[in-house]
Amino acid sequence: MPADTIEILEGDEEGIERRNGWGPLEIQRGTDGRVQGVVFRRCLRVYDEQRRFAPIFDDSALETIPCDTVLLAVGQAPDLSFLDPGGEDVEMARPGWPKVNRATLATTASGVFVAGDLAHGTRLLIDAVASGKAAARSVFEHITGRRICSEIVETHRVLERYQRERGYESLGRVPLPVLPPEMRLKAPDAVVELGYTEEGAVREASRCLDCGVSPVFDGARCVLCGGCADVCPTQCLKLVPLDWLAGGQDFGFAVQGFTGSGAELSEDSAIVKDEQRCIRCALCAIRCPADAITMERVEFQTNWRSA
Ligand code: SF4
Ligand code: SF4
Q: Where are the beta strands (DSSP E) in the chain?
């Protein structure tokens, strides 16, 4: 079922029974017009291969649930009614979803581009913003005949004596205060998430990874003492023999470029880092006896120009 984990947990707390894998087919009414039940059909698939919302149902597997109230969830489908009349040249890939060129976000109608859900299916808001910008570049090219090119400039700024709050590496998430389930059931329109206190908000904000900051290792200074790996709270650093890496497709050329040909790989070591587990705590940089690790703020700037 496409729902956030927190929605499922809160539903469980309120005693809501979930029936996964079914989609509504028909609302049944009595002769007096009142709702009597909903007919569901078995859902075989929710998303297509491109992660677009495209459910497929089995019409031979039906189940009717008696009820007197139906709550409709909204917001799943784009509204293309503005294309009528006159939008026949916007061909549809399937009902309600135009054919879209993935590279340019152009539809089949000249000069008509799409962004957001129409461009890529249901995704995050930030994806919609990115596709809006991509569509704007395509519109510019369509109107002027000139392309917009980008160049990414990466800068590193060394942060001297960088360190995080005391105990940062073991700070747990501050649970968001919510209305108790029994109160939610008594007052369905009450606000469920009550928000943090000032103290809770400050503490939760202090867990921010500040992921623009990264430990950067200087291989020329490192004496391979292993101190950084010992102190790392997430165990994302590991000292390994260099020949472990040299044999791999990804690192072979890099190792050769660093050591030169003819080096005795089995006698040397390297530090490997699992970037996804690094919490930017700086403990490795503080521990390093050879000043081989600097905490650096890495920034990317995209410069645009029309060609
Ligand atoms: S910054 Fe912290 S988590 Fe990241 S490698 Fe260093 S010690 Fe490990
Ligand atoms: S603590 Fe410094 S010198 Fe020791 S292994 Fe890590 S980077 Fe190298």
A: 22-29, 35-47, 53-66, 92-94, 97-98, 148-158, 213-217, 237-241, 269-273, 293-306
- Residue 74 clears pLDDT 70, i.e. is over it: no
pLDDT band at 247 (very low <50, low <70, confident <90, very high): low
User: Residue 76 Cα, ligand 2 centroid: separation in angstroms?
Assistant: 52
Kindly list the domain boundaries of the chain, sorted by start residue. 5-66, 89-146, 172-205
Mutate to test the pocket of ligand 1, among 211, 278, 288, 296 (most ligand atoms within 8 A of CB): 278
Query: Residues lining ligand 1, judged by CB closer than 6 Å?
Result: 215, 232, 234, 236-237, 273, 278-284
| Pocket lining: 116 vs ligand 2, CB cutoff 6 Å | no
- Residue range 5-66, CATH number: 3.50.50.60
pLDDT grade for 7, boundaries at 50, 70 and 90? confident
Tell me the CA–centroid distance for residue 297 and ligand 2, in Å. Answer: 20
